[in-house]
Amino acid sequence: MLDQMIAIVRQAGEIILSAKDVASQTHEKTSAADLVTEYDLAVEHFLKEKLPPLVPGAIFFGEEEAENADPSRGWAFIVDPIDGTTNFVRDLRQSAISVALAKDGAVEYGVVYDPFRNEVFSARRGGGAFRNGQPIHVSSRPLSEGVFGMGTAIYRREYLEPTMRLTEQLFRRSCDFRRMGAAALDLCNVACGRTELFFEYSLCPWDYAAGSLLVTEAGGMACTLEGAPLPITERCSVWVSNRVNHPILQELEV
Ligand code: IPD
Ligand code: CA
Ligand code: CA
């Protein structure tokens, strides 16, 4: 299953790599900070055609045209066709396709593909996590020697103050932080030990479903900022970290 998903997601990546003149094919969804391009739609349409036949009866739950379907029942593909659309529009080359396959609310398979770096992150529940087929693990660095990632919950501006407060608390304990702009890749960066932890106050299931399995299969922890398991049905806060830094969550004012 994972190999078939990877092959399809790699093909979809060709659509992103073939992109030309993206700015003229970009539309605002709710504001100038909330964009969709013709490429987001093309990738989603491609995946909607190719993925469901892999699992008869599976539903397709994609960001751009989310069906009125419940991804917590039976098999469900949970898809972000381009995570990091603003990066894509600005040619920052930090975007990914994120595909999770869940069964009855638990993510069983996850694939995150960064076509610009030719990196496929993949995981199967209980089967470990991989980058281009090689096993990956979270780091063992304490935050005092580490770098963390964060997201600004751009579509929920009410989280600005807590986001900045938490960033300050973590920055005081760490070497530095990054705001990369593609949550699925932020999670993979923790999974492969490039960063030590990541948080964002509001993410959607298509942002975190695949990446959170990558983190846990790579030996890390994934939960909400309240320490609860991540649902796959709704928007929530997300905290992922290596093992050493997970207990810090209890000490923070969130
Ligand atoms: C967004 C990115 C961004 C994060 C936002 C997400 P999109 O996804 O992952 O880093 O801060 O919360 O919604 O809109 O580019 O698919
Ligand atoms: Ca996204
Ligand atoms: Ca997206």
Which features does this protein show?
254 residues; alpha+beta; 7 helices; binds calcium ion; binds D-MYO-inositol-1-phosphate; five-stranded mixed beta sheet
Task: Provide an overview of this structure.
The chain is an alpha+beta fold and 254 residues long. It is 29% helix and 29% strand. It contains 7 helices and 14 strands. Helix 1 (2-17) packs antiparallel against helix 2 (38-50) and helix 5 runs parallel beside helix 6 (205-217). The longest helix is centred in the N-terminal third of the chain and has 16 residues, at 2-17. The structure holds D-MYO-inositol-1-phosphate and calcium ion (2 copies).
In terms of quaternary structure, the protein is single chain
For the biggest β-sheet, the strand order reads 3-4-5-6-7-8-9
Total strands: the figure is 14
Q: What characterizes the major β-sheet?
A: 7 strands, mixed
Which ligands occur here? D-MYO-inositol-1-phosphate, calcium ion
Identify low-pLDDT runs. Answer: none
Distance between the termini: 38 Å
* Global morphology: globular
Structure class: alpha+beta
Q: Radius of gyration, Cα only, in angstroms?
A: 17 Å
Q: DSSP strand (E) fraction? A: 25-35%
Fraction of residues in helix? 25-40%
Overall pLDDT confidence: 96
Q: How large is the count of helical segments?
A: 7
Element order: H for helix, E for strand: HEEHEEHEEEEEEHEHEHEEH
